[in-house]
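Exercise: predict the fold of this chain.
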Amino acid sequence: MAEQVITVDNLQVRYPGTDRPAVDRMSFSVARGEVFGFLGPSGAGKSTTQKVLTRLLRRYEGEVSVLGRPLGAWGPDYFERVGVGFELPAGFGRLTARENLAAFASLYRGPVEDPDELLARVDLADAASRRVSDLSKGMRMRLNLARALVNGPELLFLDEPTSGQDPVRSALLRGVIREAADRGRTVFLTTHDMATADLLCDRVAFVAGGRIAAVDTPRALKLRHGSPGLVAEVRGRAPMRMPVESLADDAELLSLLREGAVETLHTREASLDDVFAAVTREHL
């Protein structure tokens, strides 16, 4: 059995003055080397859970263990072993990208990554000498990921790491994250981007109403919540959508194919967007 890096059992968080808990008896675990997606609508409890795991929120009920130790037993050394990249990029605006990484690296007692190598990995080598205040949002988000990796963490907490990126750089950042997992690091990923979650995550958990509504591999969830079908785009008419089981007996489709009227033909499987809608609708 794989080593569990995060174990959450019966976690509950209630903010003062609220009627319902933000996190309601939630339980899950994350294995070493896994990219674990934490997905759900705004207000579902994702950010609160992340705050507990990053020790920004320390008042909670239940049991939480991280890296083989109860979370409450960790001291400042916890942050030597984890990396955090929040959705809003953090940096010193008057310092260059290289100076920012060097400044953050100086906070750690252990070995750190070379700033220039990290900048190259996130496609910021050409911007190493530019002030952070002059960088675009997408560039600052890439710097944010580099900063989260600077201490060579065993566990990465990432929030919307591909925000503000074009498709090429989104793929680049997914590759950097995947490489970290392949080297045995564990990634706890919070995102609203279902495409990124589908391409990157080994497992995903859908959160709704402070609870885990479903957790499994992206493929298993899509098979469970969707029906495979076929979409035919036909010249001069609306697209035809058909379930797979009816294709063999669909005389109309066969006739259109013989006539050459079908312009495109492709399968239609459930997406994580479909799963998101189905699962959260059931549990809200």
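Check your answer against the key: The longest strand covers residues 4-13.
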